[in-house]
Design goal:
The chain is α+β, with helices and mostly antiparallel strands. It contains 15 helices and 33 strands. It has 3 domains: 110 residues, Immunoglobulin-like (Sandwich), CATH 2.60.40; 429 residues, TIM Barrel (Alpha-Beta Barrel); 117 residues, Immunoglobulin-like (Sandwich), CATH 2.60.40. A hairpin with a 2-residue loop joins β12 and β13. α13 runs parallel beside α15.
């Protein structure tokens, strides 16, 4: 053995190799280890081995820990990098010959333990590579005080995309379906072969295609913990996934195969098949915090490599700024972290063909390294201008947990000479609140409702943006489902184990007489009508509609408006509801089909009130129920909107349509008179939410004409829509 070791270290010796628990053969590796390229970061597979590249400014030593099996508690080999030969600036790098795809590894770093100034190096900590492309296994029970996190996996990114590419659909043409990969098919009612997985989503593509949505927005799919650091299932499991461990790695828990790295292949298969069906994939990304928590949290990755760079610190470095409500805040505008975010986004676009991103708590990215909100923050501007991301959709959740609320003002980068290159869209929280309040019957909501219906020009036009920069939604994963919005006056989060203290208290909901499910037919009819009212409003509004999965068939979370920890039937899609509420499903399908065919409701420019052509109707006209001008200060709870047909036809064989919408949110009936300006057109009923199916919607636009006296009485809480072909 001594002779073997002497032979191994003959010549240019540049590593120290050892094993912590038992001897091993040094002859297993045929050639010496040597210096490699300094970029890109992570574990890069080469023809004859693997290149490891790690950033750390303050580390004094670095090691790569190699494992054979996922369940192994300790490495079979440790490769030590010495600062003299394996460090270029702040980049540690080494090439290890003989390693292949599937190799399991951790990183270990030496450095100062000085929490009072922000250093948290721990030479015993097994660290997840910040650039790991996949993780395998889970937390193993710790021994000797050492946390054993999931292992990193060396990945071969080769994949047969079968000629598919990102779809590049215009944002204005997009219809988003927000969904949870696991929750979409996990229920036994889904009937899929692989429930709760990427492959399970593939099995339900025919459903998505028949519904008509053009994009799925997936709740977080980058790696997050399944078990706690003790290897135990936590009391409140992490279901939503907003607790990232590795930004470059798809979540292993949604893969069918347990082979290390299989999730990479299965995720790509899902994206490929969705693209074949014409459905884009948008990822909900969480570049605002990590699973390492605050100063009392574990050292799993970033803390143990360069804590002072990756996080916003406070109190001299001993504590973490918490603008996320999750214990720490990623230092997104530090150049190193900014670079990591860019690499990550590019990687998902180039290697996974992702079509867009929704940035969770995006206002965090508007904070400088001290935590102050700043105009035109570097990371936000750079994402918008990055050439590789030029075809992707970028959507901000324009607020954070520390009081920042930037809806309408996020990324105000659109100067007059660059209006055609405004990239950032936003989840429009104002749209959600105003539409909910209008249909609940709150007084004084007509002006705000009209503004939201018309594309929220008050929010987006001053900054040089357009209606399609408003992502309109009424419900999302965060809050009530649409069914629960009309079934509960109060949240019911008791199952979360926090004494119902968690979750939003102000939901603008109403139960119409009974809290929760009811057998009262009259109440259920009102609830169904209100669901249809809000869905019809969503798909008839200017802007980009987003609906929550299951809202098309009254999915319920039993009043839970913060189901982050409910990995059970509370959150899962019950597929029996599709049949039970098939009339609602048909209603939504018809709305989506109409929106896709009708450019009048998805204009790229804001409405002006001016004629669409000489002598023609204005692009938008507003009326009171009697057909007269609106007194906006005293508009009651009713409104009439007339949209003139978009002047340019997308299909020469199909006319665009004028659209007449009547909104009546008061509980009592009211008489409506069709305005004189709208008479003389060949109106046919499209929607009447007060009618029973199938007369609630006419997908072929062939409903009955208006009454001959141009007058009709709308029951309380009703939406009526007529359409007329544009003949010129």
């Amino acid at each position: 053995m001594a002779t073997d070791l002497q032979q191994w270290f003959t010549g240019n010796v540049d590593v120290v190799v050892g094993r912590p628990t038992q001897p091993f053969s040094m002859l297993a590796r045929p050639t010496t280890l040597h210096l490699a390229h300094t970029l890109p970061y992570g574990a890069i597979l080469r023809e004859d081995g693997v290149q490891f590249v790690i950033f750390s400014r303050s580390a004094t030593g670095m090691r790569i820990l190699l494992y054979r099996n996922v369940e192994d508690p300790d490495p079979y080999e440790i490769i030590s990098l010495n600062p003299h030969d394996h460090r270029w600036g702040d980049v540690w790098t080494i090439f290890v010959p003989g390693l292949k795809a599937g190799q399991l590894y951790h990183i270990q770093a030496d450095g100062p333990w000085a929490p009072e100034i922000g250093h948290r190096f721990d030479s015993k900590a097994r660290l997840i590579d910040p650039y790991a492309k996949a993780l395998a296994g889970d937390f193993l029970p710790p021994t000797d005080g050492i946390i054993r996190p999931p292992k990193c996996v060396v990945i071969d990114d080769e994949f047969d995309w079968q000629g598919t590419r990102p779809i590049r659909r215009e944002l204005s043409e997009t219809i988003i379906y927000e969904m949870h990969v696991k929750g979409f098919t996990r229920s036994r009612t889904s009937g899929v072969q692989f429930p709760g997985t990427y492959l399970g989503v593939i099995e339900k593509i025919p459903y998505l295609k028949s519904l008509g949505v053009t994009a799925v927005e997936l709740m977080p799919v980058h790696e997050f913990p399944i078990l706690d650091i003790y290897g135990q299932k936590p009391a409140r499991p992490n279901y939503w996934g907003y607790d990232p461990l590795a930004f470059f790695a798809p979540h292993r828990g949604y893969a069918v195969s347990k082979e290390p790295g299989a999730q990479v292949r299965e995720f790509k298969e899902m994206v490929r098949e969705l693209h074949k069906a014409g459905i884009e994939v948008i990822l909900d990304v969480v570049f605002n915090h990590t699973a390492e928590g605050n100063e009392n949290g574990p050292i799993l990755s970033f803390k143990g490599l360069e804590n002072r760079v990756y996080y916003m610190l406070d109190n001299g470095g001993s504590r973490y700024k918490n603008y996320t409500g999750c214990g720490n805040t990623l230092n997104g505008n530090h150049p190193i972290v900014r670079e990591m975010i860019f690499h990550c986004l590019r990687y998902w676009v180039h290697n996974y063909h992702i079509d867009g991103f929704r940035f969770d708590l995006a206002s965090i990215l508007s904070r400088d390294r001290a935590g102050n909100l700043v105009p035109n923050p570097p990371v936000v501007e750079a994402i918008a201008e990055d050439p590789l991301l030029a075809d992707t959709k970028i959507i901000a959740e324009a607020w954070d947990a520390a009081g920042a609320y930037q809806v309408g003002t996020f990324a105000t980068l659109c100067w007059p000479d660059t209006f055609d290159h405004c990239r950032w869209a936003e989840w429009n929280g104002r749209y959600r609140d105003d539409v909910r309040r209008f249909w609940r019957g709150d007084p004084g909501m007509v002006p705000a409702f009209a503004t939201r219906l018309a594309g929220s020009s008050d929010l987006y036009q001053p900054g040089g943006r357009y209606p399609y920069h408003s992502i309109n939604f009424i419900t999302s994963h965060d809050g009530f489902t649409l069914n629960d919005l009309v079934s509960y006056n109060h949240k019911h989060n008791e199952a979360n184990g926090e004494d119902n203290r968690d979750g939003e208290n102000n939901n603008y909901s109403y139960n119409y007489g009974v809290e929760g499910p009811t057998w009262h037919k009259g109440i259920d009819l009102i609830r169904m009508r209100q669901i249809k009212n809000m869905l019809a409003t969503l798909f008839l509004s200017q802007g980009v509609p987003m609906m929550l999965f299951g809202d098309e068939c009254r999915r319920t979370q039993r009043g839970n408006n913060n189901a982050y920890c409910q990995d059970n039937s509370i959150s899962w899609f019950n597929w029996k509801l599709v049949h039970r509420y098939r009339e609602l499903w048909r209603f939504v399908q018809a709305l989506i089909a109409f929106r896709k065919q009708e450019p009048t409701v998805r204009r790229k420019d804001f409405l002006t009130g001016l004629p669409v052509r000489p002598g023609g109707l204005p692009d938008v006209s507003w009326f009171n129920p009697m057909g007269g001008p609106v007194d906006w200060a005293n508009a009651g709870r009713s409104l009439v909107c007339l949209l003139a047909a978009f002047p340019e036809r997308e299909d020469p064989n199909r006319p665009n349509h004028h659209i007449l919408m009547m909104f009546h949110a008061a509980p009592e009936p009211a008489r409506f008179v069709i305005p004189a300006a709208a008479r003389g057109l060949a109106w046919r009923l499209f929607i009447d939410t007060s009618r029973m199916s199938p007369n609630d919607i006419y997908p072929n636009l062939d409903g009955p004409p208006p009454p001959v006296d141009w007058s009709l009485t709308l029951p309380g809480r009703t939406l009526v829509c007529y359409v007329a072909p544009d003949v010129f």
